Amino acid sequence: MNAASILLVDDDRHLLESMATWLREQGYRVGAAPGFQAAIAALERETPDLVLADVRLQDGDGFDLLAWCREHRPGLTVILLTGYGTVETGIEALRAGAFDLLTKPLIDEELEMAIDRALSQRRVLEENQQLKAQLDKRFGLENIVGHDHRMQRVFDVIDSIADTKATVLITGESGTGKSMIARAIHRRSQRRDKAFVEIACGALPENLLESELFGHVAGSFTGAISEKMGKFQQSDGGTIFLDEIGTATPALQVKLLRVLQEFAFEPVGGSQTIKIDTRVILATNEDLAEAVADGRFRQDLYYRVNVINIELPSLRERASDVPMLAMHFLESIVKESGKQVEGFTDEALSAMQRYSWPGNVRELQNVVERAVLLGKGSLVRPEDLPAHLLSGQPVFSISPSGSKSLKDSLADPERAIILDTLKANNWNRNATAEKLGINRTTLYKKMKRLGLDNVPHSVGS
Q1: For 96-113, how does the pLDDT look when each residue is reduced to its tens digit (9 = 90+)?
Q2: What are the tens digits of pLDDT across the range 317-353?
Q3: CATH classification (class only), 5-134
Q4: 168 in helix, strand or coil?
Q5: Cα separation, 2 vs 8, whole angstroms
Q6: Quick one: DSSP state of residue 228?
C-alpha cells in the first residue's frame, strides 16, 4: 500500500468520484474537492503530498490554486489537468511552478507515471533537506561547544562575516578546531549549498600542491596524461579552505596573491585564464607576522589574507569549557559505538581540567573516545584516562633546559600507550600484544626497554 496522500480537485463530480476511487484502489489516501474554494479549505486543514487539479473550475481555475500553493504551501507539488492542452498552456503551467500538465482524457498508466515522478521528486527534496539539516548540525556553530568569553567572541565574528566575501585567516595552535570553524562559516553563509573544499597545504610537495589547487592541462608535466580540474575551480560559487598556509613556497605565494586579488588563474601548463567566485578561508598555527619578518612569507600576501583574523584560544586558556566539551564528545561516541556510558566521575573531570592539553580539543576528543571504548563502567573514572594525563605531564613534554633527547621524547608516548593497553587488558600480555598489533616477544622486549616489566599492576589504578 502507498501511504502518500493526494488532493484531487475537479468540478466534474462524476470524474472527481471515479478518479478518487481509482486512486484509492492504487493505495493512495485521497481527498476530493469540487472547486477552488473547497480546495483551499482542504489545504488549510491538512497538507497532502500532491495536488491534482483541473485547470478550469467553476469558482476559479487550477492556475489560481497553483499560485495559492506557491505562496502558502511552497513545498507542495501540483500537477494540473486540462481538456484543452496546448504547447503554450504546458509552458505556462511549468513556468508557473506546476510539476506537470496532463491532458484529458487521462490514460491510467500516464497518470500513474506522473504521480510516481512527482512523489519521487518530493522524496529527493525531503532527503536533501534532511541532509542539509544534518550538515548544519554537524558543521554549524551549534556543534562548536564553548561558553568561555573568548569563544563567544569567535561566534560573534562568525555571525558578522559569514555572508561576506572577505578573506578570513584562522589562527591558533594545532587541534583548536580551525577546520570546524571554517566549515561553520561556510554553513552559515549563502554559499552553504555550494562546495566546501579543504586542502592541507603542508601535506603535498610543491609541484603536486600547485596542480591540486589550480589544476593542469594534459602533458604539462610527467604523468599528466589528462586534464585535471583544480580545487579552486571545484569550489567556484562555494568556499575553499587552505590549511597550513604558512608552509606555502614563495612561488605558490605569488599565485595565491593573484587569485586573492583577481580571482583568476591559469592551470599548470595552460594559457587559458579561469575566473572564479570563491570564498577563501585560510588557517595556520604559525605566526605569519614573524614569518614576514624572517622573509619566509610575502608581506603583500600577508596583508591580503589577514583581512579578518579569527584567533582560536588554546584549550588550556579555556579550562572551564573542558567538562562541557568532554560531555559533548562522550555523547557523540556513545551514540556511534552503542556503549552504555553516562558521564564522568568528579575525580575524572578534575584531572581533565588540571591537564594542560597541548593537543587541544583534538587531544581531548581522542582521550574521551579511548576512555569510553576501553572503560568498563557506566562512568569514566580516573583509571580510564591515560597515565600521562593523571600525572599532569604531556606526552611530549620537554625539560626546561631542553636536554631531553629525541629518543627519550619518543619513548614517552610509547610507554604510555603500552601501559594503558596493559591496564585495559588486566595485564594480560597476550591480549595486550594482540591489541597493539605486535607479537608477544616484541612486547616483552619493549616492556623491558621501557621499564614496564617490573611495574606493579596497581600503578595508575
Answers
A1: 888 888 888 888 888 888
A2: 998 899 999 998 999 899 888 888 999 999 999 999 9
A3: alpha beta
A4: strand
A5: 16
A6: B
